[in-house]
Design goal:
With 179 residues, the protein is an alpha+beta fold. The chain folds into 2 domains: 109 residues, TATA-Binding Protein, CATH 3.30.310; 50 residues, no CATH class. Helices cover 22% and strands 31% of the residues. It is built from 3 helices and 10 strands, in the order E-H-E-E-E-E-H-E-E-E-E-H-E. The strands form 3 sheets. The chain has a 6-stranded antiparallel β-sheet with strand order 2-3-4-9-1-10. Strand 2 and strand 3 form a beta hairpin. The termini are close together. Bound molecules: zinc ion (ZN). Zinc ion binds next to loops.
């Protein structure tokens, strides 16, 4: 039996602001009674929050005392979605779905992981597009510095995602899948 996950990735937070913004999200979760500080995970860039009194605002999870709660993840991270569906890159300028160029993207992913910077040229419109700016079919990837994860629970409520997005003040992408 695998684990399911849902991640709200902040597509615009910079490496410099991610940590402070992650702390702001955590403070908001606690102030709203949505979550409570969790145990120290002793993992850099990962802060756990347990369900709070208003957890029903996040998801319809009846057995919430056993819930995994939320984790705020900061630092350069390749967030991915459902391996079952996969998804090809989509140019944010011309909306072309790029197929058959996996090696170009895989090289760019390696470079982004190593340096935080990588571009891939769109074969249709010719623009050099930063890797994090690409859209993905099925919201398969997000190359980001901040994400909020929920493991092993029912779907996150749309209202919660909207409020979280507004606290972040940035565009977000919801990635979901199973490992
Ligand atoms: Zn294009």
């Amino acid at each position: 039996m695998g684990s399911t996950f849902q991640t709200v990735a902040d597509l615009e937070a910079t490496a410099e602001e991610a940590e402070a913004l992650g702390e702001r999200v955590g403070a908001w979760l606690v102030a709203e009674g949505i979550a409570a500080p969790g145990r120290d995970l002793s993992v850099p860039g990962r802060t756990a929050y347990l369900p709070g009194p208003r957890w029903s605002h996040v998801t319809d999870e009846r057995r919430y005392p056993e819930s995994d709660g939320l984790a705020v993840v900061t630092g350069r991270t390749v967030f991915f979605g459902s391996l079952a569906t996969g998804g090809s890159p989509v140019c944010p300028h011309c909306a072309t779905v790029v197929r058959g160029r996996e090696s170009a993207y895989s090289d760019a992913m390696d470079a982004w992981w190593a340096t935080g910077v990588a571009d891939v040229r769109c074969p249709a419109c010719g623009r050099e597009v930063p890797l994090p700016a690409w859209e993905w079919e099925n919201d398969f990837f997000a190359f980001a510095h901040l994400g909020i994860e929920h493991w092993n629970g029912p779907p996150l409520r749309a209202g919660f995602i909207a409020e979280l997005t507004s606290v972040l003040g940035h565009r977000t992408r919801l990635l979901a899948g199973r490992i």
